[in-house]
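**User:**
Make up any protein.

**Assistant:**
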Amino acid sequence: MQILYAFYTSPDHSVNNTEKELFFSLQKTYDLYHYMLALVVEIEKFAEARIELRRNKHRPTYEDLHPNTKFVDNLLIHQLKHNQSLNKYLENAKLTWATEPELIRKMYTALLEQDFFTQYMNSPERSFEEDRKLVENIYKILVPQFEDIEGILEELSIYWNDDLEFVLSMVQKTFKKFREQNGDNQALLPMFKDDEDRQFAKDLYRKAVVNHDDNVKLIQQHTMNWDVERIAFIDNLIMELALTEFLYFPSIPTKVSMNEYIELSKYYSTERSRNFINGILDKALKDLKATDKIVKAGRGLIGELEE
C-alpha cells in the first residue's frame, strides 16, 4: 500500500523503479526483524555488566558477591546471543544496539519493575520453557509500551515507521520455534516463506497498478452520492488492493482478503473511514459474486461454498 502511494504521488511513474523500492522496503523490514532479535541480548549484556561492576566495588555487599544470575543465565537469550545466522546478519547489515546505551539502560530499569520479571527471578524453577516465556513477555509486554524505541527506530530508518508491531509478531513466532538442542544453529525465519510468497508481493503490486482504472470504476459504482475524489486517497488504495485480490488471486479466499484489508484500515484510516471501506467492499464483493466475476480455486475456495 505504501509503495502504491509512492507510485501515484511521485513524478516518477516507473513501475520497475517502484517495484525495486518495494523489495528494498521488504529487505529493511527484515533488517528490523534481526535488529529486534538482538535487543534482548543487549539488555542481558547490560545486566551482566552491572553484576560485574557490583562485584568489583571497593566494599561489595553479600548481595553484590552473590547476585541472582537467573536472567543473565537465561538459556534462550544465551542461544540467541551465539546464534550464527543472527550474528552474521547483524555484522553484514552493520546493525548494533551499542550506539543506544541510554535506551538499553532505561529498558533494563523498566524490566526490573515488571511483575512477570520479578516472578521469574524469584521462581526456583530453571528450564528452557520458563526462560522462553520470560523472553516472550519482554517482547509482548515491555517493548510495545516503551515509546522511546519507536522514536529511535524512526531516526534510524524511514522504512521502520510502521513495521514494529508486525516485526514483534514475527519475533514471537521465531521464539516458539527455538529448541534447546539446536544450539547456535537454530534457524531464524526466512525473508520469504518460499518463491511463491516472494512472487505474491510482486504480483499484487503490479496487478493493482495495471487494473487501477477498472478498480476505480468498481469503487465508483458502489459509492452512491460520493465523489470518488473526495474519498481519502489511502482509503481508495486499500479498496483497490482488496479488489485486486478478490479478482486476480484465485488461491486467496475472499474472506481472508476482506479481513486483511479491514485490519489494514485500522492503522491508516479513521473509524468512520473503516466502516465506509467495509461497507463498500462488502457491496462490491456481493455484486462481483452475483455476476460470476469472482473465480477461486484450491485454497481460495475456503469459505466460499458456505455462502
User: Anything to note?
Assistant: The longest helix spans residues 15-37.
